[in-house]
Amino acid sequence: xxxxxxxxxxxxxxxxxxxxxxxxxxxxxxxxxxxxxxxxxxxxxxxxxxxxxxxxxxxxxxxxxxxxxxxxxxxxxxxxxxxxxxxxxxxxxxxxxxxxxxxxxxxxxxxxxxxxxxxxxxxxxxxxxxxxxxxxxxxxxxxxxxx
Length: 147
Known about the structure:
Elements: H1 3-8, E1 12-19, H2 30-38, E2 42-52, E3 58-61, H3 75-78, H4 87-95, E4 102-110, H5 114-122, H6 135-146
């Protein structure tokens, strides 16, 4: 990535999604991901699929071999590989998967925040912490407030 790209870069996040061992992913989320990309909300840097075998070993799975169904072109995601994810990252991600489960590891840039991040960097500021509130925890808090 050259300096101009770095200057334009928004915050980068990752997520790991686990698919149950007894169900083939249907791909219904991919058109929604494509919509975020087309609206320039995010930029997918890496999208990798893995499976954790019953013996605990981890194997990579090509997107076209993942068994996804639906009316979309999966090859759009097959080339999402920036090189940021290495085998250690995949092993770490797969370690949280249940035996027999498959997972997707997604690394993405928050394009919507790039101008804000650029302005902060130009002012000498730097992001020193991030976090997420799990949806379940948020719903539990809202339920507590409502009662």
